[in-house]
Design goal:
Blueprint: H1 10-24, H2 31-46, H3 57-70
Helix pairs in contact: 1-2, 1-3, 2-3
Length: 72
């Protein structure tokens, strides 16, 4: 099986959501706004899991979240 065809496992998703929660803190959001930013970022990353084979996870998460936050 090719690495690029691998999706996110349950463990991957849990770790990614934890990471996104920490990253969302830098935008000083709370409650539904923070949850929405995390969810939108998670969905963007989950729909394009091959990005994790192109750049580090931390970079992908930070860049994606910033792009979503800036576009709101």
């Amino acid at each position: 099986m090719d690495n690029k065809s691998r999706g996110l496992s349950t463990s991957d998703m849990r770790i990614l959501r934890t990471l996104l929660g920490r990253y969302a803190a830098r935008y000083h959001l709370a409650g539904p706004e923070k949850d929405n930013l995390i969810e939108r970022t998670f969905q963007a990353l989950a729909s394009n899991p091959e990005i994790f084979f192109e750049i580090p996870v931390e970079q992908a998460a930070a860049e994606t979240m910033h792009r979503i936050y800036a576009g709101r």
